[in-house]
Design a protein that fits this description.
Layout lengths: L11 H4 L15 E8 L8 E2 L1 E3 L2 E4 L5 E2 L16 E4 L2 E4 L9 E3 L5 E3 L16 E3 L9 E5 L7 E9 L2 E10 L18 E9 L7 E2 L1
């Protein structure tokens, strides 16, 4: 069962019909936030973007790990939290070395494994930007402008009764993204969406897996 991140709770008025208006003020200071997908009249609307398996998903739970013993020593975070500043993006973690977010040459939105800075050749680690939301319900936006990208897309990964459905893997619609790169084998199955930011002030996780 998918959990409900705390940063999603303040969006309840929006789900009941209030307009979604992203804020326009950018910042170079690191921002910490969760991401909510916005695409009206779609199965991904107002769903969270979660980290799992070095990829990002809509419809999958966040995957985390902590090696500390006893478990009470582990940080209590359990949500996918992004940290953006200076054009780069990472995940909000405690593990030494951190976990960097990047876009692979085929558009896959990805992150490094813990204890490794390895990134595929020709991947992009710059041109990320975010504007801040506030706790009163206004929203910011997360964007990427590299590799000729034109926004985020969510691509279905499972087939049910002849139709491709979620979980949805997140890509950037870069120039190189082709049918062979997406789970269904057809780019037309993917749904473009706005990546809205909701502020997060809670605890981090040790690492994402």
């Amino acid at each position: 069962m998918l959990t409900t991140p705390s940063f999603l709770l303040f969006l309840l008025p929006l789900a009941l019909g209030s307009p979604i208006t992203p804020r326009d003020t950018p910042t170079d200071a690191p921002l910490k936030f969760g991401i909510i997908a916005a695409r009206s009249a779609s199965p991904i609307h107002l769903s969270t973007v979660n980290a799992s398996g070095q990829a990002f998903w809509i419809g999958k739970d966040t995957a985390t790990y902590c090696p500390l013993q006893p478990p009470s020593q582990c940080p209590p975070g359990n949500q996918t939290v992004f940290a953006v500043g200076g054009g780069t993006a990472s995940l909000d973690v405690v593990v030494p070395g951190g976990q960097q977010i990047y876009v692979a040459p085929n558009g896959k939105l990805s992150y490094t494994i813990a204890h490794s800075a390895a990134i595929p050749p020709d991947s992009a680690v710059q041109t990320f930007n975010a504007t801040s939301g506030t706790v009163n319900g206004s929203l910011g936006q997360f964007t990427f402008q590299g590799l000729g990208g034109s926004g985020f897309v969510a691509c279905p990964s499972k087939k049910s009764r002849g139709k491709w459905v979620g979980p949805y893997q997140v890509f950037v619609d870069v120039k190189a993204l082709s049918d062979k790169d997406v789970p269904s084998g057809c780019k037309k199955d993917c749904l473009g969406f706005s990546a809205l930011t909701a502020p997060y002030t809670g605890a981090p996780v040790w690492q994402y897996t």
